Amino acid sequence: MAIAEVEKQGVGVSMLRKEDDRLLRGRGQFVGDVRLAGMKDVAFVRSPIAHARVKGVHPPEDLRSQVVTAADLEGVKPIRAVSGLAGFKPSDQPVLAFEKVRQVGELLAMCVADTRAAAEDIAARVELDLEELPAVHDMIAARDKDAPLLHEDWGDNVFLETFVDVNIEAAFDAPIKITREIKTARQSMAPMEGRGTVAYWDKRMEQLVLISGSQMPHIVRTGLAECLGLGQHQVRIVSPDVGGGFGYKGILLPEDICLGWYAMRCGHPVRWIEDRREHLTAGANCREHHYVITAYADRDGKLRGIDCEATVDSGAYSSYPFSACLEAAQVASILPGPYDFPSYRCRTWSVATNKCPILPYRGVARTGVCYALELVLDAVAREAGLEPHEVRLKNLVQPDQMPFDNITRKHFDSGDYPEALQRAIEAIDVKAIRERQKRGEENGRLIGVGHSIYCEQGAHGTSVYSGWGIPMVPGHEQATARMTPDGGLELRVGVHSHGQSMETTLPQIAHEILGIDISKIKLVHGDTEYTPYSTGSWGSRCAVMAGGAVAAASRDVASRARKIGAHLLQVHVDDVELVGGRVKGPSGSVSLEEIAHTWYRLPQNLPDDVDPRGLEGTVGHKPKRDTGTFSYAAHAAVVAVDPENGDIEILDYVIVEDGGKLINPMVVDGQIYGGLAQGIGTALYEEMNFDSSGQPLASTFADYLLPGPTEVPAPRLDHMETVSPYTEFGVKGIGEGGAIAPPAAIGNAVNDALKDLGAELVRTPMTPRRVLEAIFAATNADSQDHSDRGGRT
Amino acid sequence: MSLSISLAINGRQHDVALNDPRVTLLDLLRERLDLPGTKKGCDRGQCGACTVLVDGRRINSCLALAASMDGAEITTIEGLAEGDELHPVQAAFIEHDAFQCGYCTPGQIMSAVGLIKEGMAGDDPERVRELMSGNICRCGAYQGITEAVLEAGRKAAENAQPQTGNPDTGKDAA
Questions:
Q1: Domain A363-458+628-781 falls in which CATH fold?
Q2: How far, in Å, CA of A721 to CA of A691, rounded?
Q3: Where are the transmembrane segments (chain B) (predicted)?
């Protein structure tokens, strides 16, 4: 019976989630739900102007004690996230601005009162003397010689320029040459819970405590301590339930530092809860890319090379810890995708503009890269007169090449990319769609089918990040496993869940090894005081890294429990095994409960040479190779485009994914559904626009459109399982993947639908207006322009 | 000047003196009455995280002034389960993996309870999606939410006694 339960709770089981109950009852504790005696509320005075000299910030005289300005913050260091890549220009992000403001929403003063409403009333009375400067709102124009400068001492607006060339000239004589200018919109991560921080000084522990929904509490502690000049032991970060993060909640914010500084001096807790306007306009920006990309190919669709100039709008400052060049540097290294071709060139610019700093969002640069590359491959297919999947199958890395080092020296660990694509093509039934297209639609809509395929590096470690030289380089991931006196287990990890179900999946791993019933395994995370140091939850790394660490720590405890068990059974340790939560010998067994009881409460019964570390262990883990796992997926979509009003409807959607061994398939399905929803948002709806003076134009969810239940179809999922040769159980990181491929698959389907009109969409989101513009441009260009750049919007 | 209101929340009577007439029902629940289960997502009626039932109908509590709630009967997520026993909608949310981070979940559940009470969706997933479209889930658990609402709706229909004169039946969502 015990063994049967092992099979029902371990790795690979779709267990219902342990964290559900409290969340369903409204008993989750998010940062906004924290109530501390004497707590006061903060409202910030933010710059209404994108670029200005700060001549003065004047709090009302009668409320001076309730207002903090830059002049008060003596000794506080600015946020400085440097990259070690050659030529990187660092920026200092002030905690409260003083000489200049460089984005709308930048902090100028902090106001404190009994309620947020009262604090906002104070903020409204702070007078600002700002001398407006010309703003840089366009990343391409920002590189012009006469562009206004954000950071005057730089001499230009470029954080970093990178260049890689692998024999591109060899591709120039290819018979097919397709160039496209492709743009992806600036977006917002928009978790339903925004940022928030409660800060207080713990007098007994002599410690600044920040309760803040954070994906990366240890990194925030390190950065915060450095800015405030505190020892790291003097800072504790508590990350309670986190209402989604998607990258935004990994970042150290100036708001955190402000609250920390104030809490050390004021004698009461202070709270700041980001409102949605602050979130959209001042904080959570991501993903604005511009590509000029050329594919060189033979007539049979074989790729000869890819040549690209990519620009990323990095915003005003380099944010901590990922820096301002994360996206662009990633573009250069991952643009070749899952393909094998001989020539490659890529130049990238990370450009400073008067906008919020660009921050990582689920998939980071991969969503844009996948969109750019996969659109161009479809254009190659159209030029060659081939089906798009035929072109892809000619160029995908083959399973017998695995593990494979690609042209940018990414080490693909395992997988069968062609199989995934073929399954997707069959499931979406391209042949049937082609027949349907020939028949036409009675309502005049145009049907299109499209697909895309990507591979996603996850859980990449020291060897990758040390090369980038940002403030955070992941090393060994640690976990603590500790048996309790009643035979239960505590797991302590430094990563933190913001919806990934770790309270269920990490105990499943411990259960797999120790056999302890999952109801008795408690995950402790989200508190720097109780957990081992970790870079946290990012880069699709938790299952691989924290999961591997939990496995290692559980094995460590298991080996010691076996020794105690063998002693209690009076047999040699080599003659026992741990099965189903019991140490079994040749003629008897003893439960882990009895073993724990003995260690903690009857030590007189332990052997003389018992391991003094007992039933608790902290173990570090790295996969056998730390260059990352490569999960992958093929997505295929059928769309109907209405050429009269530009409406796009997704009629069918197929995903074939391979995440290696899945710890909890139900949880993975949820991640894929969720990624798809966000990918559909990227493809069709979400856009954070700015006007030419740098004013953000989307400040509510009426302007920034999130996909709702009627916009997200029920996809059909198909799973493959190619285990990683390097990780515990063969798992691969997959949390971000669902969000990577949808814009490319939908974009290719739309372009397939429009191909007979000669129209093509090459930017996200593909709004009705852009569909109509593309059709209009193609119709108008028809008579005069037959070049490959005609008719694209 | 303070304004006094009297309202029933989850079956318990509250007499509240409002020292600021601008306070929303959402802020009253969260900041004054220690009922933080109802969430604030946008404070503008655009996300649905703050959905509660007022006299049986679902509303966005961020758009309702507390001062207008005198005499109202309000149900929040905290008042849904009967002790340990989850409300059927809550149970269906677990069964169908209808959430990830759990932040929008109280609003989704209250909206689903309201929807089922309205009796407008029946067994049609497209109707459920349409009538739940005021509730955004950024984790994208719409598939599970739709399945959960359908299942809870079916169960409610099976258990329903023949009723007459329910004033809420047939009313549209707020």
A1: Aldehyde Oxidoreductase; domain 4 (3.30.365)
A2: 47
A3: none
> What is residue A790's predicted lDDT score, i.e. its pLDDT?
41
- pLDDT surpasses 60 at A792: no
Do B99 and B153 reside in the same domain of the chain? yes
In chain A, residues with a C-beta closer than 8 Å to the C-beta of B43 are 275-276
Residue in B with minimal Cα distance to A275: B42
Q: Is the pLDDT of residue A173 over 80?
A: yes
> Which letter does DSSP use for residue A277 in this model?
H
Tell me the average pLDDT of chain B: 92
Identity at A62, one-letter amino acid code:
D
Give the distance from residue B161's alpha carbon to the nearest chain A alpha carbon, in angstroms.
Answer: 27
A592 contacts A521 by C-beta, under 8 angstroms: no
Q: Is the pTM of this model over 0.90?
A: yes
- Predicted confidence band at A489 (pLDDT cuts at 50, 70, 90)? very high
| Co-location of B107 and B69 in the same domain | no
CATH number assigned to the domain comprising residue B20: 3.10.20.30
CB contact (8 A) between residue A673 and residue B43: no
Are B110 and B140 found together in one domain? yes
Q: How far is A674 from chain B (nearest CA, A)?
A: 4
Q: How many domains does chain B have?
A: 2
* In a shared domain, residues B94 and B136: yes
Q: Is the pLDDT of residue A449 over 90?
A: yes
Contact criterion met (CB < 8 Å) for A669 and B97: yes
The boundaries of the domain holding residue B144 are 88-160
Residues of chain A with CATH 3.30.365.10: 363-458+628-781, 476-621
**Residue after which a domain boundary falls, among B50, B78, B106:** B78
Instruction: Name the one residue in this structure whose structure tokens are 């199958």.
Output: A393
The answer to whether B33 and B43 are in contact (CB under 8 A) is: no
Q: State how far Cα A677 lies from the chain centre.
A: 15
Kindly list the residues from chain A whose CB atom is less than 8 angstroms away from the CB atom of residue B126.
710
Which pLDDT tens digit goes with each residue over A341-369?
999 999 999 999 999 999 999 999 999 99
Q: Are strands B57-60 and B51-54 parallel, antiparallel or unpaired?
A: antiparallel
Would residue B169 count as lying in a domain? no
**DSSP code at position A397:** P
- Residue A558 in contact with residue A580, Cβ under 8 Å? no
Q: Which of B76, B101, B110, B132 to mutate to test the interface with A (most CBs of A within 10 A)?
A: B101
Domain end call among B58, B78, B98: B78
User: Does ipTM surpass 0.90 in this model?
Assistant: yes
Q: With H, G, I as helix, E, B as strand and everything else as coil, classify residue A272.
A: strand
Binned at pLDDT 50, 70 and 90, residue B167 comes out as: very low
Q: How confident is the model at residue A7 (pLDDT cuts 50, 70, 90)?
A: low
The CATH number of the domain holding residue B139 is: 1.10.150.120
Q: Is A717 on the interface with B (CB under 8 A)?
A: no
B170 within domain boundaries: no
Judgement on whether residues B18 and B37 belong to the same structural domain of the protein: yes
Please write the tens of the pLDDT for every residue from A23-82: 999 999 999 999 999 999 999 999 999 999 999 999 999 999 999 999 999 999 999 999
- What's the token pair of residue A635? 């997505």
The pLDDT confidence band at residue A778, using thresholds 50, 70 and 90, is very high
Residue B149 lies in a domain: yes
The architecture of the domain spanning A476-621 is 2-Layer Sandwich (3.30)
The per-residue pLDDT for range B14-26, each reduced to its tens digit, is 999 998 899 999 9
A chain contacts of residue B77, beta-carbon cutoff 8 Å: 24-26
Mutation target among B143, B149, B150 for the A interface, most CBs of A within 10 A: B143
User: Cα–Cα distance between A503 and A765 in angstroms, integer?
Assistant: 35
pLDDT at A633 over 90: yes
What residues contact residue A531 under an 8 Å CB cut-off, 6+ apart? A217, A218, A480, A492, A493, A494, A524, A525
- Residue B71 is assigned to a structural domain of this protein: yes
Q: Mutate which of B142, B146, B147, B150 to test chain A, going by most A C-beta atoms within 10 A?
A: B142
